[in-house]
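User: For my dataset I need records formatted as: sequence, then C-alpha cells, nothing else. Please produce one.
Assistant:
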Amino acid sequence: MNYRSQNKPPPRSPSNKNSSVDGTHHDKRRKIGTARLAGPVSTGRGRQPFAAMPNRQDANLNANDLAGTEASECESVQFTKEEVEALLNEKIKGKKFDLKGKMEQMNDHIKKLKLCIKWFQEVEERHVQEKEKVQNTLDSVERKCTATEVAMQNKEDELKSLIKELKDTTASLQENLTREELEKLDAIECHRREKEDRVAAEKLQASLREELEKAEQEKVTANQRVTSLNDMYKRLQEYNTSLQQYNSKLQTDLATANESLKRVENEKATIVQNLSTLRSHYTLLQDQLTSSRASQDEAVQQKEILLKEVGSLRGELQQVRDDRDRQLAQTQALNAELVKYKESTGKSVAELDNLTLKSSALEETCSSQREQIRLLQHQLAAATEKLKMADLSSLETRTEFEEQKKAICELQDRLVDAELQISEGEKLRKKLHNTILELKGNIRVFCRVRPLLPDDGAGTDNSVVSYPTSVESKGRGIELIQSGQKLPFSFDKVFNHEASQNDVFVEISQLVQSALDGYKVCIFAYGQTGSGKTYTMMGMPESPEQKGLIPRSLEQIFQSSQSLLAQGWKFKMQASMLEIYNETIRDLLSVNRSSGSELARAESGGVGKQYAIKHDVNGNTHVSDLTIVDVCSIKEVSSLLQQAAQSRSVGKTQMNEHSSRSHFVFTLRISGVNESTEQQVQGVLNLIDLAGSERLSRSGATGDRLKETQAINKSLSCLSDVIFALAKKEDHVPFRNSKLTYLLQPCLGGDSKTLMFVNISPDPVSLGESLCSLRFAARVNSCEIGIPRRQTSTRPLDSRLSYG
C-alpha cells in the first residue's frame, strides 16, 4: 500500500473549475453507501457536510461504537477540500480541567483523521488502477498501430518492387524500339548508297562506249597501240561484266522493294475500300434508324388519339348507366315509402303504447348511467392525482440521475487532475534530483537486476535479493541476503527484475537529450558475465519492445533533431564504434576489417593500424585513424550497429553462452547550428558496454579464453583503481594504466554527465560477484567529478560542414 498520500495536500476540488457564473459552489458527489460518519441518518436527499458535524459532547457516541462502524464508514464517506480543512482546523473545546472529556474529543478527532487517511489511500489505489487500465489500453493500441505500420511497409515494398519491374520492362522495350529504328535508318541509307552506285556505273558505261568508238576510229592510225588497247579493252570488259552483275543485283533488290511496296499499297487500298463500305453501311443504318424513329412517333401519336376517343366513349357510357341506376333507385324508394305508409297507419296505436313503455325504461337507464358517470369521474380524479405523483417521482429520479452523472464527471475530472499532479510532481522530482546531482558533480549510478533464468538457483528457492519498502528507499534501495543477514545498498535508481526496457529508458531519456543540448554524456554498463549488460545496452533491435538503450537513445536523438528544425536548428552527426580487446583498440567499422586476420596480427605482434588515444584542451577524446561515419537517419545507424555486432569479439564460457570478450564503445558526435541566432552547440554521446568480470574458477577459461579473461579483469581492476583514487581525491589518478580508463578519462574526471548501470544476477551462486559489483557501484556513486559544462558558442561554423 502506498502511504505517500498522507504527506500530500488534499485533492483539489473540481468545483473551482466547474463553478457557476454567480460564484455558487457545487458540492455534488456520488453517495457510495448509506452510512454516515457521525450523527443520525439524514432523511433528506443530500449528505450532511463534514464540517457541520456535532462535537463529541453533542454526538453522545463512545469510542467502541465508532470503532465498530469504522470499516463500513470508510467505504461510504467522501471528503472535500473544505471538510479536510475543517477537520484539520477543528479545536478541542471543553472545560479547562475536564481531561477525560478532552481525551474523548481527541480520540474522536483521531478516528476522523484515520477515516480521512483511509479514504485518501483508497482514492489513490483507484487512481493507480485506472492508470494501469489506461496504460494497458494504450499498449494495445500501440501494438495495433505497429502491426498496421508493418503491414503498410510490406505493401509499400511490394509496390516498389512492382514499379521497379515495370520500369525495367519499359526500358527494355524502349531499347528494342530504338534499335529497330536505327536498323531501319541503316537499311534506308544502304539502299540510297546502292542507288547512287548504280547511277555512277551507268555513267561510266556510257563513257566507256564513247571511248571505244574513238578507239575504233583511231585504230587505223594507232596500230602500235593495238596490243595495249586490246589489253585495256579486256580489262574494261571484265569491269563492265562485274558492273552488269552488280547492276542486275541492284535491279533484283529494287524489284523486291517495288513488290513489297505494291503489296502494302494493295493492303492500303483494301483497307480504304473496307472503310468506305463500312461508312456506307453506317449511313444506311442511320437512315433506317431515322425512318424507324419517325414511324414510331407516328404510331405513338395515333395511339394517343385512340386513347382519347376511348376515354370519351367510356365517359358517355358511364353517364348513361348512372342515369339508369338513379331512375331505378327512385322507383324502388317510392314503392318502399308506399308500403311503409300503409303499415304505419295500421300500427300507429300499438307503437304509441310501446313508445310510452320504452320512454319510462329509458328514464330509469339514464338515472343509473348518471350515477355510474359520477363514480367514474371520482376514479378519474384519483388516477389523475396518482399520475401527477408518478410524474413528480420520475422527475425527481431524473434529477437525481443527472446529479449523479454530474458527480461522476466531476470525479473523473478530479482523477485526471490528480494524475496530472502526480506526473508533474514526478517530473519535478526528477528534474530537481538531476539538478542536485549536476551541482554535486557526482557520477549517477543505476542498478538493474535481471530475472531468474531456468538454469539459475542451483536447486534452492531462497532469494538473495530483496527490495526495501520504506518511503525513503522505495525504488532506490536494494538488499543482498548473505547468511541470513541483509546488506543494504542505495543508488539513484534501482530496477527490479520486472522492469521493462522502456521503463529503464524513460529514466535516462533526459540525460540523452542533454547530448543534443551541447553536453558530453557517457552511459556505461558494468557487471559480471551473464548479468544482462549487453541486453540493457543493445537488447534485441528486431523487437520494438526489447530494444536496448543504444537504439532507443538514437531514435530519440533523431526525432528531437527533426522537431528542432522548425526552430532553425540543423544538426550534423558522426558515429564511430570500437572495441578494446586484450588491451588493443579495434575499429569495428573498418572497411577492410577481418576479425580473424587482424586478431592474429595483433596477438602475434604483426604490423597493423596503431590506434592512439588523444585528449584535447576542451576535454574531447579522439582516436587516430578511427573510422568516423556521417549519419543522417536511424536506419543508417542501425546498419552500422549490426555491422559492429557481427565484428565484435564474443565467446562461449561456462558462465554465458555468448559472452562479450571486449569493451564496446559507441560514440555519436553532434554538431548543431541555429541559422537565426548563429548559436553553435557541440555534444557527444558515449554508450559503452563493458566486458563482464568473471572468476577463472567459475568460467573455466583456457587458452585464448584465459588470456581474454585476464585482460578483461585487469582493465576492470584498473577502472577500480581509478574510481578509488577519485573517491579518495588523490592527487594522482592512474588513468593511463589501461586503454579503457584512458579512454574514459574525460567521462570519469572531466565535465561530462556520466551514468553507470550496475547489472546484478539474482542467482544465489553469483552472490559473491553481485556483492563485489554493488560495493564497487557504491564507491562510484560517491565519486565527485567536474560540473557538466555545455559547449556552445555564437561563432559561425566551418562552411565546409554540411548540416542536414
